[in-house]
Amino acid sequence: MGVKKRISGCVATANAVKLADVEVICSYPIRPYTGIMSELARMVADGELDAEFVYGEGEHGQLSVVYGASAAGARAFTGSSGVGVTYAMEVYSPISGERLPLQMAIADRTLDPPGDFGSEQTDALCCRDQGWIQGWASTPQEALDLTLLYYRIGEDPRVLLPQYACQDGYFVSHILGEVDIPDAAQVKEFLPPYKNHHVLDPRNPQIIGAQMEPSMGPGMQYQRYQAIEGSRKVIEEVHEEFGRIFGRKYAPWVEEYMTDDAEVVIFMQGGHAETCKTVVKRLRNLGEKVGLVRLRTFRPFPTQQVRDALGRFKAVGVVDNSVNFGISGAAGVLLTEARTALYGLGDKVPTVGFVAGLGGEMITHDEFYKMFAKLKEVAKAGKADKQSYWLPFEL
Amino acid sequence: MSVPVKEVPFAGTVPSPKTENEGMITGNWRTRRPVLDADKCTNCLICWISCPDSSVNQNADVVSFNLKYCKGCGICNEVCPVGAISLAPELDFED
Amino acid sequence: MTNLFEEPGLKQITVWARGVYENKEARDVVVAVTEAAALEGKFVQAWENYVDLPDRIYVPVRAYGKISDQEIESKYVYENETPDIVALTEETLVKGVDILAGIKPGAVLVINTKRPAEYLFKFIKKGTENLASIVTVDANSLAKSIITLSGAEGATDASGIGKGMGAALAAAIVKATGIVQFESLLKIVENKNAAKKAFEKAQVVDVKTLVNAG
Ligand code: SF4
Ligand code: SF4
């Protein structure tokens, strides 16, 4: 049995890193993810965790350090937020291309401008196509669990890919929530010590990240494509195993909340889904047939599962907590992904995009209420008269 | 609460404050107020040059303090060579 | 629409403090009171304001707590918009800071001060209509303020919950409001002595008497 504590998402993640017995950590400060590193630094200083704690000289350096550590065979961890995440952009692709299963925590922060430090998923979503496993936690508990789940998935010899374990900054990363911290023996059973697949070792010299000819390019990319596609089966197996060992059963792809007999639903990811649940519950009390579908794994995107889940409703609202200026659908990437998943079902399921909670604003109960009201109109008319709405300005 | 679009400055560009920044009034950070003993003051202006918040006024014979912005950090009190500035609890003053 | 999302049993505590010097004490007050409530089976939440500038010395900063009989549904409403209890770790905050913004009718203000409530009341310019009582306690004479970055940015406070002056302030809150049992608070705070003395010494003054006098 583990212990129950009220802790922030940052501390929850740090606890998972400790339980995963991570060997190399590289930090560089930026709010709001900083709390993860202060906690880990304390654990190392207090002798609770035996790991190399390296101070990076910036995020590019941070990622380079864990890249090297992972290539040398260590279980490695790093993290960042906002512009820190984008500053390290160059290093993400080599890490996944060279199949090094390290982990990076991202506690979301807006890019500049607005230059505030509020949460917005744009930072992590900028990296969505880098060949990493990626998904969002909606509570501190899930932040802890995601760290363990992702190491196990990424290190599986059938996958060997790095992972972004994401959580909304401030909302999930800073507000304390009740967390069941599992005990070390359980975690050992779930996540055995890291056994590297290919490693820098002077006894068996090899070059990791060697220069390749263009003719090797297609094959290299195809390997990575196969890895991420192949990870789907592993993701399902690992979630199954996680539920068996820890007793917390997560649907690997989408969590459905009050969707039985629902007519309209909101589809979204991250912590704001918790606020949406309240709205769904209260509207259900009034007899409204509304529900929520929360995406748990964003990369690989569960096209079939999303199609199966969302295909049953009369209208779907997709909430994007990120910006993609000029994107088709004029909202965010979640809307385009959801529409792609639903493509081919004809006009059966009208979709509407809602861009909300930008710059770190909370998505309020009233805003979700308005979204559901709009969705009811769309369901009745069988079509939407506008592709997307930016809140609070357009709804 | 989100600020209406029309009230958000275009491209995040705001006019630079020339003398005062109404968007950052720091007088309420102060727990201790600098008080001048004019008899001791030699008007050397070391306090004026040292104040990190440009809250020492030097446009009279003796210095005075801009209490709208003075944070009460006490640096002026520290640097005054003749001990002309003391710090008093802010709540001793009704204004 | 607003009624639809009301949470009738929810109590909000807002603690104002001075940046850097008292970040920990403010956080300790809300953590101690909410953890005590959790011992009594309540649903609770505690956190620090994220957009105040906590790394600026003396800047007014806030820490928040929520306590409810039911599961807290407004958990990502990140500021207490309608506090039931407001506490100040430092007396000067009565001056020039809108400390009573949004308070509910019957709200209580708790101040760490040597001065009498009558004197401090004069400085409060806004929001006193809904204020029921002012509680004063000289918490600084009972325990020191602990200045530390431990526990900042959502990390664990390794310096001990309620080890400093916050324990005394929390005790004054409990005395004035009965929001939790004093025994529950004592189980949480490290500086039990300061808490006990503050519980004994805190002065509760009815605001009506101040209004009449003023
Ligand atoms: S106390 Fe600090 S801010 Fe105020 S006048 Fe003196 S130096 Fe300037
Ligand atoms: S430093 Fe002292 S003596 Fe010099 S101008 Fe300021 S108050 Fe006067």
Description:
The complex is a heterotrimer of chains A (395), B (95) and C (214). Chain A has 395 residues and is an alpha/beta fold. Chain A has 2 domains: 3-246, Rossmann fold (3-Layer(aba) Sandwich); 254-390, Rossmann fold (3-Layer(aba) Sandwich), CATH 3.40.50. Chain A is built from 13 helices and 15 strands. In chain A, helix 1 crosses helix 2, helix 7 (140-155) crosses helix 9 and helix 11 (303-310) packs across helix 12 (333-342). In chain B, strand 2 and strand 3 form a beta hairpin. Chain B is elongated and about 55 Å long. Chain C is an alpha/beta fold. Chain C contains 6 helices and 7 strands, in the order βαββββαβαααβα. A 7-stranded mixed β-sheet of chain C has the order 2-3-1-4-5-6-7. The mean pLDDT of chain C is 94. Chains in contact: A-B, A-C, B-C. The complex binds iron/sulfur cluster (2 copies).
Give the topology.
The complex is a heterotrimer of chains A (395), B (95) and C (214).
Chain A lengths: L2 E5 L1 H11 L4 E4 L6 H12 L6 E4 L3 H13 L4 E5 L1 H6 L1 H9 L5 E5 L14 H4 L7 E5 L2 H16 L7 E5 L9 E5 L2 H7 L26 H30 L7 E4 L6 E5 L3 H14 L4 E6 L1 E3 L3 H8 L4 E6 L12 H10 L8 E5 L9 H17 L6 E3 L5
Parallel strand pairs in A: 2-3, 2-4, 4-5, 5-7, 6-7, 10-11, 10-13, 13-14, 14-15
Antiparallel strand pairs in A: 1-8, 6-12, 9-11
Helix pairs in contact in A: 1-2, 1-7, 3-5, 7-9, 8-9, 10-13, 11-12
Chain B lengths: L31 E5 L9 H5 L5 E2 L6 E2 L9 H5 L5 E5 L6
Chain C lengths: L10 E8 L4 H17 L3 E6 L11 E9 L16 E4 L18 E6 L4 H5 L9 E7 L27 H13 L4 H7 L3 H10 L1 E4 H7 L1
Helix pairs in contact in C: 1-3, 1-4, 3-5
Bound molecules: iron/sulfur cluster (2 copies).
Strand order of the largest sheet of chain B: 1-4
Helix-strand pattern of chain B? EHEEHE
Give the strand tally of chain C.
7
CATH architecture of the domain at 37-95 in chain B: 2-Layer Sandwich
Classified in CATH, the superfamily of chain C is Pyruvate-ferredoxin oxidoreductase, PFOR, domain III
Largest interface: A-C, 40 and 27 residues
The class by helix and strand makeup of chain B works out as alpha+beta
Q: Which CATH C-level class of the domain at 37-95 in chain B is it?
A: Alpha Beta
The main sheet of chain C comes to: 7 strands, mixed
Counting DSSP E segments of at least 2 residues, the number of strands of chain B comes to 4
What CATH calls the topology of the domain at 37-95 in chain B is Alpha-Beta Plaits
How are the strands of the largest sheet of chain C arranged?
A: 2-3-1-4-5-6-7
Q: Which architecture of chain C per CATH?
A: 3-Layer(aba) Sandwich
N-to-C span of chain C: 40 Å
**What share of the residues of chain B lie within helices?**
10-25%
Rg over CA atoms of chain B: 17 Å
Proportion of residues in extended strands of chain C:
15-25%
Give me the strand/helix succession of chain C. Answer: EHEEEEHEHHHEH
